[in-house]
Specification:
With about 375 residues, this protein is α/β, with parallel strands linked by helices. The chain has a domain of about 90 residues. It is about 55% helix and about 10% strand. It has 16 helices and 7 strands. The longest helix has 29 residues. InterPro entries: Transposase-related, Transposase_IS66_central.
């Protein structure tokens, strides 16, 4: 079930086999198990602490509850179905960002006789649209980012994956690249040309030093600081790269690292003309490491719906971390209250808005 239809069966009716539907014409709705708190008891540790369902099954059993992995999987899907309108709202706000950072990784999915290499993508909004939204696709084709970014027209910060090219050209998006990627390639080739590596690393360190000075500054002041201090470093570095390129054989490991930068120099230097563009894509890569950890523990998703469920729940817990929100408390209150929330009031339950209401409440945290 993708989306939240106007009718949903209660959990109790599913267990009894009656299948009786209850209508909620203008409100979101959920299962009884979600409202009672059992939904978050599975969704939180599975998607925030990365405990695989078989471990949760053992933990529940030690506490006297027999909750199979299949049941837990259904509950996670129910939580995701309930939260999907909130997820779509976060995605909409990310697409309103001036800068969107993105990355992707393999997400194995069960297929006939084997696992298929599906993908999990992340789209990180800027500070004015501070949401981390994951998206699951069946492959790494450009249709995934093309669909998510179909209405986007500003700056996309990403790696060198060619699948973004059609999206960028078709949408007139400005593409920015990551200096951390370039630095890693140089460090990887350090043994082949240690002196070149030393100089490049020192010059990139100088760029990051400017960024530390710019922390907390308004965009215009950050841009001025970059133009005064970073642009001279970037100009000198390019001259050095061109000189070293002439000295090295084309297949030399360091030549490949230098060509990586020179071939995308315009994208690497977008930050010199736009103070809102970060120097690197580390914020999205950090979140991808959590997906990798979850993948290591849980191994795969069962099907496309399982991938979609993982994307929705990861978006909520990741955005909670971004705003220093306790995801367990948030999910508990969300699942308790969301069935009675009108669509027009949905934004109040975004993690940042929820935290703001918590802080403003004279009686302390809402129950």
């Amino acid at each position: 079930m993708l989306g939240v239809p106007s009718k949903l069966c209660s959990f109790n009716c599913l267990r009894s086999g009656t299948g009786q539907a209850v209508a909620f014409p203008s409100k979101l709705c959920s299962f009884n198990c979600l409202r009672s708190g059992t939904g978050q008891a599975v969704a939180f540790p599975h998607n925030s602490d990365y405990l695989p369902l078989y471990r949760l099954e053992d933990i529940f059993a030690r506490q006297g509850f027999e909750i199979s992995r299949a049941t837990q999987s259904v509950w996670c899907g129910d939580v995701a179905d309930l939260a999907e309108p909130l997820y779509e709202l976060m995605a909409q706000r990310v697409r309103s960002s001036h800068v969107v950072a993105t990355d992707d990784t393999i997400m194995p999915m069960l297929s006939k006789g084997k696992t298929a290499n599906a993908r999990m993508w992340i789209y990180v909004g800027d500070d004015d649209h501070a949401y981390n939204v994951f998206d699951f696709t069946l492959n790494r084709g450009r249709d995934g980012p093309k669909h998510f970014l179909k209405d986007y027209r500003q700056v996309l910060l990403a790696d060198a994956y060619g699948g973004y090219n059609g999206v960028v050209a078709g949408n007139e998006i400005t593409r920015a690249r990551c200096w951390a990627h370039f630095r890693r390639k140089v460090v990887d080739a350090e043994k082949a040309a240690p002196e070149i590596a030393r100089v490049v690393v020192e010059m990139v360190r100088a760029l990051y030093s400017v960024e530390r000075q710019a922390t907390g500054l308004p965009v215009a002041e950050r841009l001025k600081l970059r133009q005064e201090n970073s642009v001279p470093v970037v100009t000198e570095l390019r001259e050095k790269l061109l000189g070293w390129k002439e000295q090295l054989l084309p297949k030399h490991p360091m030549a490949e690292a230098l060509n990586y930068a020179l071939s995308q120099w315009e994208e690497l230097t977008v930050f010199c003309s736009d103070g809102a563009v970060p120097l690197d894509n580390n914020i999205s890569e950090r979140e991808m490491k959590r997906v990798v950890l979850n993948r290591k523990n849980s191994l795969f998703v069962g099907n496309a719906r399982g991938g979609r469920t993982a994307a929705i729940l990861a978006s909520l817990t990741s955005t909670c971390r971004r705003h220093d929100v306790d995801p367990q408390l948030y999910l508990t209150q969300l699942l308790t209250n969301l069935p009675s929330v009108r669509i027009s009031d949905l934004a109040e339950w975004l993690p940042d808005e929820w935290k703001r209401r918590q802080s403003a409440s004279p009686d302390g945290p809402m129950k």
